[in-house]
């Protein structure tokens, strides 16, 4: 009997060894099915029919290991057109799977399906997925967790547990009506009714207390928070009462660990944050406070979403302590945080082939019909280099791949069409961009530097600019107008952060560098969905390279057409 059991043990350990031995580790295929549908959800005592994935809100967390091939069959059983974007995934030579509607694919229409199939290489940490059409990402989103491949470890001590924390927003309205109504009236979309954490607003909102998110922790242990800002229109400060946080990764790139008591997370960014339960056994609030660098004249939602960090053996049921949040417009706390982060082992391009200066911000255009009678005959727009993007009727990638003309032009300017004092008092004559569907063509493997220059048109706002299909180095940032003579001397070409979304400082600029090594069509846009809906978008087209492996493969056969 004894012999038999040690034999069994030996066999068991041998099997385990074979299954997990590092030299055996190979990438796996990870399959998921997403069914898009609708369901009734109640928040703030208000019931809405919302669009969800697999009936979950937030949607399912997908977990893969670095190197895995992720295959997600998306079935649209809902009433709206939909696409899914894998935010931050580099999609090397799989541009067709990127997901932005009318850029890389036509929407999956109700009753139809499309299978996203791509490999995740060279990225570890937290990313996310979301709908990339109209306002659906308000409810169609979830975390994408990328663990080290078998045999590799985190570059920090293994946490006792990991928690996805998804920051979002809730409307007491159908979000598709919110955006359609704004576009029809020529206004910015109405603000949400609450900020949320894992879809719950927390104790300070009506009908919410019973569902407030609670994280249970044990004294002395460390935990990893995988924070995703899925918010639609605002950045967020994030704090935990009486606890410090150590940021170890951002946008699925490890960074030099940075310990702080406050984070700033913008829509589009993700952060991996270690916390230790090293305070008195008790209950502590954690949560967000909106960061809005310069509000427009209208009122905005200036509140906090909260959740509770609770020590397991805690017996004190009194009201948890609230963190002391920064003010909504505390730009110095915001900038102090973002300028304190540093990358690890970076290989920043030291020289540049393609240099661009791109202004970014809001504007106003005159309506040609009476759709903006409510707004004095003008409507708000967003623009890059004075071009407000007009979405085409068929996907740009399809048009490019099949040589269909008349869908886009290749004349996106590398510099503002007219130089002006971008952050000064901009004359009204410069407030109205041109409308167009222009792309910027990049040579394969060229090193690109872009200075994103915020303009003081309508308002100074720190806009989170997201680039699809690439991570970029954030080599510099500053306030005021970028000076091409003096500012490059202060660039960090040693250990800058690598990101997929950069919040350009309010009334300032940010300089980024990347290598255009990924053939295809790549959207860049303000990750405030309200702004992206107003044409705050642009497109890069990276040409194929000379080698047979530098070419974008053909589209999958089930790619939806328009
Ligand atoms: Cu997170 Cu273009 O998107």
What does this structure look like?
With 562 residues, the protein is mainly β. The protein has 3 domains: 2-152, Immunoglobulin-like, CATH 2.60.40.420; 162-340, Cupredoxins -  blue copper proteins (Immunoglobulin-like); 354-550, Cupredoxins -  blue copper proteins (Immunoglobulin-like), CATH 2.60.40. The protein is 9% helix and 37% strand. It has helices at 2-20, 175-185, 331-338, 396-401, 529-532, and strands spanning 29-43, 46-53, 62-65, 69-76, 84-87, 113-119, 125-131, 141-147, 161-170, 194-197, 214-217, 222-229, 235-240, 245-250, 253-260, 263-265, 270-276, 283-291, 304-311, 354-366, 378-384, 387-389, 434-436, 439-442, 447-454, 464-467, 472-479, 498-499, 501-503, 508-515, 520-526, 537-542. The strands form 7 sheets. Strands 10-9-12-17-14-15 form a 6-stranded mixed sheet, with no helix packed on it. β1 and β2 (46-53) form a beta hairpin. The chain starts with a helix and ends in a 20-residue tail after the last strand. The site of CU-O-CU linkage has 11 residues, from β5 and β31.
